[in-house]
Amino acid sequence: MSRLSILVLHGPNLNLLGQREPGIYGSVTLEKINQQLLSLAEKLQCDIACYQSNHEGNLVDTIQEALDCHDGIVINAAAYTHTSVAIRDALAAVAIPAVEVHLSNIYRREDFRHHSFIAPIVVGQISGFGAQSYSLGLQALVNHLQTQT
Ligand code: DQA
After folding, report:
1. Which domains does the chain have, with CATH numbers?
2. pLDDT mean over 59-66
């Protein structure tokens, strides 16, 4: 089997991790999360590319471009989770297996965060484990891709 390539997508305001509402999102920066994912990817013997954008269209473009170069997607669409039909449709269109992650447990928070447009079309969702949600998501996705027939 050839080496898997995973796209890690971060949505709006996640560039401010570390300083943004640390009581909810923790004190780990996005750069640190990406570093941790890179070293986990080495252990899992896969390649990863990390991308953050505050703009819905950029995220849609990046999902479309993944078609030619990535086997799986780990996505924290942040606020767009709860609003974006366009991101959901892009994920459905490329049909690349994806795992949805959230630092906070979105079901313990405000009602408007309880609905995810993305959840019905992903392999699974990990929510509430802080920065660890990303590493759990990457491990689960790689395992899924390696074991699916
Ligand atoms: C988030 C949860 C979303 O509701 C919120 O809009 C975010 C971050 C999380 O990782 O916990 O920006 O996706």
Report:
1. 4-148 (3.40.50.9100)
2. 98
